[in-house]
Amino acid sequence: MRYLISTILFCVIQQVLYAYTINIHIDKPLLEINSIAWSIQDFKSLLENTGVEKVFINDDLSHHVEIWIKINNNEEKTKNYNTDIYLVSTPDRSYHWVGKDTDSTYHLELATKAKEGVQAGIYGLLQEVFNFNFYHPRASQYPDMKKWVLQGNFDYQSHPRLNKMGFHLHTMHPIELTEALLDIHFPQGEKRIKEYIDWLARNRQNYMEFNLLESINRKQWPQYAAKWVEYMKDRDIIPGLDLSLHMKQQKAFQLYRLAPQSFRTKKNQIKRQINILSVADWKYWNVEFSATEFSSGNAKKKNQLRAYAHQLLKEKGIVLTGREHVVKPEAMINKVKKSIQNEKDTLDKYRGTMIHTVMFYGLNDTLAPVYGNKNLLHMRDKLLTEMSERETWYYPESAYWVTFDNSIPMFLSPYLNSRLSDILYCDSIGIEGHLTFSSGWEWNYWLVDWSIANWSWESQINHENIVPYPEQYLNKLVEDTLFQKYFTQVNLLQNRIIKQQNLIQYLTATTVTDEMPLGKNLPFHPIPDLTYAYISNHATLKEIDSLQTVTLPIFKSYLEEYEKIRSTLPSHLNKNIESEIVRSMDMVALRVNHRMLTLSFLLAQRKTVLENNKNENVHFKYLEEAAQVRAAGIQIVRQQEAQYRYSIKELATQWPNHTAYEFGYLYPVHNLHFWEREEKQAISNKWKFWYQNIWNVWKIMGIIK
After folding, report:
1. Is the pTM of this model over 0.90?
2. Could you tell me the sign of the dihedral formed by the alpha carbons of 460, 462, 468, 471, in that order?
3. What is the pLDDT of residue 388?
4. In what order do the strands lie in the sheet with 65-69?
5. Which of 139, 309, 386, 586 is most buried, most CB within 10 Å of its CB?
6. Any residues with CB less than 8 A from the CB of 98 and at least 6 apart, and which?
7. SS3 at position 566
8. How far is CA 112 from CA 75, 116, 122, 163, 331, in A?
9. b/e per residue 448-475 (b: at least 16 CB within 10 A)
10. Closest alpha carbon to 509 in 370, 597, 407
11. Which sign does the torsion angle of CA 284, 290, 295, 299 carry?
12. Under DSSP, is residue 445 helix (H, G, I), strand (E, B) or coil?
């Protein structure tokens, strides 16, 4: 295949291994292309920070290293581009590096097909060859570049598995960038956003979106957004926006409001909001057309409004997309009529669709007991159907904040396995895009996002494939083989017991959605067949015996196996990342132990009642031990908080913000709220959702502002 652009030559004098300068030769018109200018300057700065004596651009003097960049402006479109289906063209960003010794110099040459491939090629070289690690927007790991690392013949090539790849920041929740993105007065908000955009560029991503909320300043926010949207384009990142037609949940931005909030017609409101928001140069709008994710609304009227919005957006060069939720149509609160379900969508191929999955479950998992489903195979089938009709992206999660993972907190490593498996599957069937639903980075969820970004590329070094595997990027950060073995074994343990044997059904916190009437009919999380309220008040001796002899041993098995794996590590860990990972894994073990103890209390207490042992109080020892486990967990939380990359006040305290939640997303973690709540529920026998509640349920549901 013919490569059209760019030659980069590294000329390293072999005798000078520890002190060398670099000169980058590049045509001046190319430096006027913003994405190339930004990436070249970043390239220069990164190299100078890692031991290279000096990096010059277009300097006439001779240097130990000479880098030449040539670009042919004749671009080709990606091989999959089809104007009948794919709505935004993305140039092929594949690239190919070739290196060889020549006399007293070393030449390294880059070939790529589009200007976007220059940026991807530079950062791919840094991360996959020179061992830079851009693992978090506020934390990177740099190699020692005092010595030139390449010798002899060298070949490195890479191509994207999908044409569009990036992240949805779920700013309906109070995560790291929520206020920066939504609050025009947030201190250094623009700087924080640009840090993340740089992280995307350095990890070869080309798409970003986030939730817009009703709480923004509608008059001033569009101009604020326009500044960093322009920076996204400068860094070859496609800007997207997530909003709603008339969604009531969690302060979602509404394209129209009902009277008395507005007396304009729905269409006039939609047109007005599109005009206001399009001050910034968005390329995609991911629009929710239902009032909630578990209701369908009037499908016929929605299609009419969707078609109207689509036409207005098209005139402004914006692609309309929507998402397919995991709730099946027949399980919706107001079921969709079959005649409407089967009606041909009026937009047909002229819109995009995002096929959503939740939590750490994948498209091909046979067990995924979430949102009233046995698994998510129906979403895989939907993916296969939709991709032949319209531009289709896969839309999985890398964390699920609400009482599932990082709010407990637990670092659930099976996310790594599922996300890798799904990326490879999407690559095999030719899906256009991959959008990761990101819900916070602490408690090691940065590792999931970073791994996903890198798995989105397929690479070869010296004609050997870089074979992806779940622990790949942690192993890249921490090269200690003993630690790598530890993490691999814990990951296997979590996948086997927490996910496949479904111990997760006990480890998630029961709150609101599980304890309200709706939750009983449509359980969002994996939940036990017997609720804790039932166990406490109605369980039979047979049911108690089954839980004690069948279920509790699963908890014990996890704890025993984890303790054995944990014992292989030294008492002192050498790196902050090692400590961070181990604390997270220890926290999961404490969570397993804590839940086992509270469950044991309920079973023993109920058995005492059934057997009429009035003087038997031995079961209270379980709650005493649970409190001790929680205290040990809080110590780990304090150690972890000392390493948070953003302010603890923002992340872990109560404070008013733009979301429906009046605290940072790690506030429930600070004093292990859900753990303490479970102890109090057990001792008081109180199981209603409002007991020890931290959520403003009516605000979250959109009933009140």
Report:
1. yes
2. negative
3. 86
4. 54-57, 21-26, 65-69
5. 309
6. 108, 109, 111, 154, 155
7. helix
8. 10, 9, 11, 15, 49
9. bbbbbbbbbbbbeeeeeeeebebbebbb
10. 407
11. negative
12. helix
Residue 93 near residue 122 (C-beta atoms within 8 A): no
Q: How far apart are CA 475 and CA 457, in angstroms?
A: 18
> What is the pLDDT at residue 302?
78
Question: Looking at residue 261, what is its pLDDT?
Answer: 66
* DSSP code, position 348: G
Q: How far apart are the first and last CA of the chain?
A: 57
DSSP E strands: which ranges in 88-151? 95-102, 105-112, 133-136, 139-141
Long-range contacts of 473-480 (CB under 8 A, 24+ apart): 473/133, 473/135, 473/447, 474/447, 474/581, 476/131, 476/133, 477/133, 477/135, 477/141, 477/577, 478/575, 478/577, 478/578, 478/581, 480/574, 480/578
Low-confidence ranges of the chain (pLDDT < 50): 1-17, 72-83, 338-344
- Ramachandran category for residue 68: left, alpha or beta (phi over 0 → left; psi -120 to 50 → alpha): beta
Assess contact for 170 and 651: CB atoms under 8 A: no
Residue 110 DSSP SS3 = strand
From residue 209, how far is each of 49, 285, 383, 485, 687 by CA, in Å? 31, 9, 21, 36, 38
Structure tokens at 62: 């001779």
SS (H, E, C) 598-654: HHHHHHHHHHHHHCCCCCCCCCHHHHHHHHHHHHHHHHHHHHHHCCCCCCHHHHHCE
Q: Are 353 and 324 in contact (CB under 8 A)?
A: yes
Query: What was the pLDDT predicted at 86?
Result: 59
pLDDT for 52: 87
pLDDT value, residue 433: 95
- Confirm if 109 and 7 have CB atoms less than 8 A apart: yes
Say how many CA atoms lie within 13 Å of 124 toward its Cβ. Answer: 31
SS3 content of the chain, % helix, strand, coil (to 5): 40, 15, 45
